[in-house]
Amino acid sequence: MNRPVQPDLVAIGRIRGAVGVRGEVRVESFSSFPDRWGEENGLQILFIGRDEASAEMVRVASCRTSSGSLIVHFESAGSRDAAERLRGAYLYIEASALHPLSEGEYFIHDLIGMEVIDAAGSARGRVADVLTTPANDVLLVRDAGREHAIPFIHDAVELVDPLRRMIRLKALEGMFED
Amino acid sequence: MARSLKKGPYIDAKLQKRVDELNRTNQKRVLKTWARNCTIPPEFVGHTFAVHNGNKFIPVYVQEAMVGHKLGEFAPTRIFRGHPGTRSEKTAKVA
Protein backbone atom coordinates (compact mmCIF):
# COMPACT_ATOMS: atom_id res chain seq x y z
CA MET A 1 0.00 0.00 0.00
CA ASN A 2 1.53 3.31 -1.04
CA ARG A 3 1.31 6.28 1.29
CA PRO A 4 0.51 9.68 -0.21
CA VAL A 5 3.19 11.44 1.88
CA GLN A 6 6.34 9.46 2.65
CA PRO A 7 7.29 9.78 6.33
CA ASP A 8 10.85 10.37 7.56
CA LEU A 9 12.36 6.86 7.55
CA VAL A 10 15.40 5.29 9.20
CA ALA A 11 16.81 1.88 8.23
CA ILE A 12 16.90 -0.87 10.84
CA GLY A 13 17.86 -3.81 8.65
CA ARG A 14 18.25 -5.43 5.27
CA ILE A 15 16.76 -8.64 3.89
CA ARG A 16 19.46 -11.20 3.10
CA GLY A 17 17.31 -13.98 1.66
CA ALA A 18 14.38 -16.33 1.98
CA VAL A 19 14.11 -18.98 4.68
CA GLY A 20 11.88 -22.03 4.33
CA VAL A 21 8.78 -22.24 2.15
CA ARG A 22 6.30 -20.12 4.12
CA GLY A 23 7.63 -16.72 3.10
CA GLU A 24 10.00 -15.98 5.98
CA VAL A 25 13.12 -13.89 5.35
CA ARG A 26 16.52 -13.64 7.03
CA VAL A 27 17.28 -10.08 8.15
CA GLU A 28 20.62 -8.37 8.86
CA SER A 29 19.93 -5.89 11.65
CA PHE A 30 21.44 -2.38 11.50
CA SER A 31 20.09 -1.43 14.89
CA SER A 32 22.33 -0.98 17.93
CA PHE A 33 19.45 -2.23 20.08
CA PRO A 34 19.07 -6.04 19.99
CA ASP A 35 15.70 -5.74 21.75
CA ARG A 36 14.40 -3.74 18.77
CA TRP A 37 13.18 -7.00 17.21
CA GLY A 38 11.55 -8.45 20.31
CA GLU A 39 7.80 -8.96 20.32
CA GLU A 40 7.44 -6.86 23.46
CA ASN A 41 8.43 -3.77 21.44
CA GLY A 42 5.33 -4.14 19.33
CA LEU A 43 7.27 -4.08 16.05
CA GLN A 44 4.24 -4.68 13.87
CA ILE A 45 4.55 -2.17 11.06
CA LEU A 46 7.64 -1.61 8.94
CA PHE A 47 8.43 0.03 5.66
CA ILE A 48 10.20 -2.05 3.06
CA GLY A 49 11.88 -0.95 -0.15
CA ARG A 50 15.09 -0.57 -2.16
CA ASP A 51 15.33 3.03 -0.90
CA GLU A 52 13.42 5.41 1.35
CA ALA A 53 11.48 6.99 -1.47
CA SER A 54 10.00 3.72 -2.73
CA ALA A 55 9.42 2.09 0.66
CA GLU A 56 5.98 0.60 1.26
CA MET A 57 4.29 -0.24 4.51
CA VAL A 58 4.13 -3.91 5.53
CA ARG A 59 2.81 -5.72 8.59
CA VAL A 60 5.05 -8.09 10.55
CA ALA A 61 3.34 -11.43 11.20
CA SER A 62 6.15 -12.90 13.32
CA CYS A 63 9.74 -12.28 14.31
CA ARG A 64 12.14 -14.84 15.82
CA THR A 65 15.81 -15.76 16.01
CA SER A 66 17.20 -19.05 14.76
CA SER A 67 20.88 -20.02 15.13
CA GLY A 68 21.77 -16.39 15.66
CA SER A 69 19.88 -15.20 12.58
CA LEU A 70 16.90 -12.92 12.70
CA ILE A 71 13.90 -14.44 10.87
CA VAL A 72 10.95 -12.21 10.02
CA HIS A 73 7.66 -13.11 8.40
CA PHE A 74 5.56 -10.40 6.72
CA GLU A 75 1.82 -10.82 6.29
CA SER A 76 2.10 -9.90 2.60
CA ALA A 77 4.71 -12.61 1.82
CA GLY A 78 3.00 -15.99 1.87
CA SER A 79 5.42 -18.06 -0.18
CA ARG A 80 9.12 -18.53 -0.77
CA ASP A 81 8.84 -16.86 -4.18
CA ALA A 82 7.35 -13.75 -2.55
CA ALA A 83 10.13 -13.78 0.05
CA GLU A 84 12.82 -14.18 -2.63
CA ARG A 85 11.59 -11.01 -4.33
CA LEU A 86 12.34 -9.09 -1.14
CA ARG A 87 16.05 -10.03 -1.12
CA GLY A 88 18.25 -6.91 -0.83
CA ALA A 89 15.41 -4.64 0.29
CA TYR A 90 15.88 -2.39 3.31
CA LEU A 91 13.58 -2.34 6.33
CA TYR A 92 12.71 1.08 7.71
CA ILE A 93 10.84 2.52 10.66
CA GLU A 94 9.53 6.03 11.09
CA ALA A 95 12.08 8.39 12.64
CA SER A 96 9.60 9.15 15.41
CA ALA A 97 9.76 5.48 16.48
CA LEU A 98 13.54 5.42 17.05
CA HIS A 99 14.75 3.80 20.25
CA PRO A 100 15.23 6.25 23.16
CA LEU A 101 18.89 7.03 23.89
CA SER A 102 20.76 6.96 27.17
CA GLU A 103 22.95 9.84 28.33
CA GLY A 104 26.06 10.31 26.18
CA GLU A 105 24.59 8.21 23.38
CA TYR A 106 23.90 9.61 19.91
CA PHE A 107 22.68 8.27 16.60
CA ILE A 108 25.58 8.06 14.14
CA HIS A 109 23.51 9.71 11.41
CA ASP A 110 23.06 12.70 13.76
CA LEU A 111 26.81 12.97 14.46
CA ILE A 112 27.80 12.90 10.79
CA GLY A 113 28.15 16.44 9.48
CA MET A 114 28.60 18.07 12.90
CA GLU A 115 31.28 20.74 13.14
CA VAL A 116 34.22 19.91 15.42
CA ILE A 117 35.71 22.73 17.50
CA ASP A 118 38.94 22.20 19.44
CA ALA A 119 39.67 23.46 22.97
CA ALA A 120 41.16 26.68 21.57
CA GLY A 121 37.94 27.43 19.69
CA SER A 122 39.28 26.67 16.20
CA ALA A 123 37.19 24.72 13.71
CA ARG A 124 38.83 21.35 12.95
CA GLY A 125 36.45 20.15 10.26
CA ARG A 126 33.29 18.10 10.14
CA VAL A 127 32.49 14.54 11.19
CA ALA A 128 32.66 12.48 8.00
CA ASP A 129 32.11 9.05 9.55
CA VAL A 130 32.01 7.23 12.87
CA LEU A 131 33.98 3.99 13.33
CA THR A 132 32.86 1.44 15.88
CA THR A 133 35.98 -0.30 17.21
CA PRO A 134 36.17 -2.92 19.99
CA ALA A 135 37.55 -0.27 22.38
CA ASN A 136 35.56 2.91 21.70
CA ASP A 137 33.83 4.77 18.94
CA VAL A 138 36.02 6.99 16.75
CA LEU A 139 35.00 10.19 14.97
CA LEU A 140 36.60 10.62 11.56
CA VAL A 141 36.90 14.37 11.13
CA ARG A 142 37.68 15.67 7.65
CA ASP A 143 39.07 19.11 6.96
CA ALA A 144 40.56 20.32 3.67
CA GLY A 145 41.55 16.82 2.54
CA ARG A 146 43.04 15.80 5.90
CA GLU A 147 41.37 13.25 8.12
CA HIS A 148 41.74 13.05 11.89
CA ALA A 149 40.61 10.16 14.08
CA ILE A 150 39.17 11.50 17.32
CA PRO A 151 38.30 9.10 20.15
CA PHE A 152 34.69 9.49 21.28
CA ILE A 153 35.66 9.43 24.98
CA HIS A 154 35.17 11.72 27.98
CA ASP A 155 38.89 12.61 27.96
CA ALA A 156 38.56 14.05 24.44
CA VAL A 157 34.98 15.25 24.03
CA GLU A 158 33.72 18.15 26.12
CA LEU A 159 30.28 18.67 24.64
CA VAL A 160 28.05 17.33 21.89
CA ASP A 161 25.41 19.89 20.93
CA PRO A 162 22.88 18.31 18.54
CA LEU A 163 20.91 21.55 18.23
CA ARG A 164 23.88 23.64 17.08
CA ARG A 165 25.32 20.61 15.20
CA MET A 166 28.64 21.07 16.99
CA ILE A 167 31.12 18.98 19.00
CA ARG A 168 33.52 20.76 21.33
CA LEU A 169 36.75 18.91 22.18
CA LYS A 170 38.93 19.00 25.27
CA ALA A 171 42.64 19.75 25.09
CA LEU A 172 44.21 16.30 24.74
CA GLU A 173 47.79 16.52 23.54
CA GLY A 174 48.68 14.42 20.52
CA MET A 175 45.10 14.09 19.24
CA PHE A 176 45.77 15.86 15.94
CA GLU A 177 49.29 14.47 15.31
CA ASP A 178 48.70 12.13 12.40
CA MET B 1 50.85 -22.11 21.30
CA ALA B 2 50.70 -19.88 24.35
CA ARG B 3 53.69 -17.80 25.39
CA SER B 4 55.83 -19.28 28.17
CA LEU B 5 54.75 -18.12 31.65
CA LYS B 6 58.41 -17.90 32.61
CA LYS B 7 58.89 -14.97 30.21
CA GLY B 8 55.78 -13.07 31.26
CA PRO B 9 53.68 -10.97 28.88
CA TYR B 10 55.36 -9.07 26.04
CA ILE B 11 55.20 -5.35 26.74
CA ASP B 12 56.88 -2.91 24.40
CA ALA B 13 59.68 -1.40 26.50
CA LYS B 14 59.61 2.01 24.78
CA LEU B 15 55.85 2.31 25.20
CA GLN B 16 56.03 1.21 28.82
CA LYS B 17 58.66 3.88 29.44
CA ARG B 18 56.46 6.60 27.90
CA VAL B 19 53.43 5.49 29.95
CA ASP B 20 55.50 5.39 33.14
CA GLU B 21 56.60 8.96 32.44
CA LEU B 22 52.95 10.08 31.97
CA ASN B 23 51.92 8.28 35.17
CA ARG B 24 54.82 9.84 37.07
CA THR B 25 53.91 13.38 35.93
CA ASN B 26 50.15 12.67 36.12
CA GLN B 27 49.65 13.79 32.51
CA LYS B 28 47.32 12.63 29.74
CA ARG B 29 48.19 12.61 26.04
CA VAL B 30 47.61 10.40 23.03
CA LEU B 31 50.58 8.06 22.56
CA LYS B 32 51.23 7.14 18.96
CA THR B 33 52.46 3.56 18.54
CA TRP B 34 53.01 0.82 16.00
CA ALA B 35 53.36 -1.81 18.78
CA ARG B 36 50.16 -3.74 18.03
CA ASN B 37 51.67 -6.85 19.65
CA CYS B 38 52.16 -5.12 23.00
CA THR B 39 50.16 -6.72 25.82
CA ILE B 40 48.15 -4.20 27.87
CA PRO B 41 49.39 -4.09 31.48
CA PRO B 42 47.31 -2.48 34.28
CA GLU B 43 49.46 0.70 34.12
CA PHE B 44 48.04 1.48 30.65
CA VAL B 45 44.47 1.82 31.98
CA GLY B 46 43.06 5.32 31.47
CA HIS B 47 45.53 6.24 28.73
CA THR B 48 44.72 6.71 25.04
CA PHE B 49 46.95 5.14 22.39
CA ALA B 50 46.88 5.92 18.69
CA VAL B 51 47.48 2.39 17.37
CA HIS B 52 48.52 2.02 13.75
CA ASN B 53 46.29 -0.29 11.72
CA GLY B 54 48.49 -0.34 8.62
CA ASN B 55 46.77 2.72 7.17
CA LYS B 56 46.04 5.21 9.92
CA PHE B 57 46.26 5.60 13.68
CA ILE B 58 43.15 4.45 15.52
CA PRO B 59 42.67 6.01 18.98
CA VAL B 60 42.22 3.33 21.63
CA TYR B 61 41.15 4.35 25.13
CA VAL B 62 42.31 1.60 27.50
CA GLN B 63 39.84 0.37 30.13
CA GLU B 64 40.24 -2.26 32.84
CA ALA B 65 38.56 -5.03 30.87
CA MET B 66 41.24 -4.70 28.16
CA VAL B 67 44.16 -5.67 30.43
CA GLY B 68 45.91 -8.81 29.15
CA HIS B 69 44.80 -8.26 25.56
CA LYS B 70 47.05 -6.88 22.80
CA LEU B 71 46.76 -3.28 21.61
CA GLY B 72 46.25 -4.45 18.03
CA GLU B 73 43.01 -6.22 18.96
CA PHE B 74 41.37 -2.82 19.38
CA ALA B 75 42.55 -1.23 16.14
CA PRO B 76 40.92 -3.28 13.36
CA THR B 77 42.75 -3.45 10.05
CA ARG B 78 39.56 -3.92 8.04
CA ILE B 79 36.66 -1.60 8.62
CA PHE B 80 33.12 -2.14 7.33
CA ARG B 81 31.81 1.30 6.46
CA GLY B 82 28.15 0.33 6.44
CA HIS B 83 25.60 0.98 3.77
CA PRO B 84 26.31 4.33 2.09
CA GLY B 85 23.53 6.85 2.03
CA THR B 86 21.38 4.94 4.49
CA ARG B 87 20.41 6.48 7.83
CA SER B 88 20.27 3.67 10.36
CA GLU B 89 19.49 3.12 14.04
CA LYS B 90 23.19 2.68 14.92
CA THR B 91 24.51 4.66 17.87
CA ALA B 92 27.83 5.91 19.22
CA LYS B 93 28.40 6.41 22.94
CA VAL B 94 30.94 8.58 24.74
CA ALA B 95 33.15 6.04 26.58
Account of the protein in words:
The complex is a heterodimer of chains A (178) and B (95). Chain A has 178 residues and is mainly beta. Chain A folds into two domains: 9-97, Elongation Factor Tu (Ef-tu), domain 3 (Beta Barrel), CATH 2.40.30.60; 108-169, Roll (SH3 type barrels). Chain A has two helices and 13 strands. In chain A, a hairpin with a 2-residue loop joins strand 10 and strand 11. Helix content of chain B is 14%, strand content 18%. Chain B has one helix and four strands, in the order H-E-E-E-E. Chain B has a three-stranded mixed sheet, with helices on one face. In chain B, a hairpin with a 4-residue loop joins strand 2 (48-52) and strand 3. The N and C termini of chain B lie far apart (34 Å). The chains are: A mainly beta (178), B alpha+beta (95). Chains A and B meet through strand 1, strand 7, helix 2, strand 9 and strand 10 of A and strand 1, strand 3 and strand 4 of B. Strand 7 of chain A pairs antiparallel with strand 4 (91-93) of chain B.
Nutshell version of this structure?
The complex is a heterodimer of chains A (178) and B (95). Chain A has helices spanning 80-84, 108-111, and strands at 9-19, 24-29, 45-49, 56-66, 69-74, 90-94, 105-107, 115-117, 123-132, 137-143, 146-151, 157-161, 166-169. By secondary structure, chain A is mostly beta strands.
